[in-house]
Design brief:
The protein is α+β, with helices and mostly antiparallel strands. It is 30% helix and 16% strand. It contains 4 helices and 7 strands; from the N terminus they run H-E-E-E-E-E-E-H-H-E-H. Strands 1, 2, 3, 4, 5, 6 and 7 form a 7-stranded mixed β-sheet that branches. Helix 1 packs antiparallel against helix 2. The longest helix has 21 residues. The termini are far apart.
């Protein structure tokens, strides 16, 4: 975080910790996400990410352009910073935490969520790419029948989940 930004209070950090400890369902597909939705990356503990960067707001998804054909997620943090994630799934933040987290974002984020809103002229680039792309869900550059390693992983997860669900229904 930049020094000019106000640090999160212990109470605010506590709210984020509770939301992370009590996270919601995992969202598997880009189409399951909504613009501005609060999410928690599934692998935050593995990467030892500070709690103030664990809860984030989804502002853009680019289908199949990440490593291994994963979707690339652009997320906004409470301090206004922007991060990209690849090879990642996210948990939804449960509804009971949303109002408090929105308040935290409104107190600290120099970028209003409306500033990121799809359809406005704001866009994002990454890794030195000069092309700014606007919108929320950016379609894959590949044809639908193009198979990426990530598509195979997701298909395997779905098959495993279906087997588990069918076993519990027996």
């Amino acid at each position: 975080m930049e020094e000019t930004r106000k640090r999160l209070s212990e109470k605010e950090l506590g709210t984020l910790r509770r939301a992370v400890a009590d996270k919601g369902d995992i969202l598997l597909d880009a189409d399951d996400y909504h613009y501005g939705e609060f999410v928690i990356p599934c692998w935050v503990k593995m990467f030892d990410i500070p709690v103030e960067r664990q809860v984030c707001r989804v502002v853009q998804i680019r289908k199949e352009i990440g490593q291994f054909g994963s979707d690339m997620f652009f997320v906004r943090h409470a301090d206004g910073s922007l991060t990209t994630w690849e090879n990642q799934m996210f948990h939804k933040v449960k509804p009971e935490y949303i109002q408090e987290i929105e308040t935290i974002y409104n107190l600290h984020d120099a970028i209003e969520i409306d500033d990121d809103e799809p359809g406005k002229s704001i866009g994002y680039n990454y890794q030195g790419n000069e092309e700014y792309i606007t919108g929320f869900i950016i379609p894959s550059p590949y044809p639908a029948d193009h198979v990426t390693p990530m598509k195979r992983v997701k298909a395997g997860i779905r098959q495993r989940m279906e087997r588990i669900m069918n076993q519990s229904n027996d």
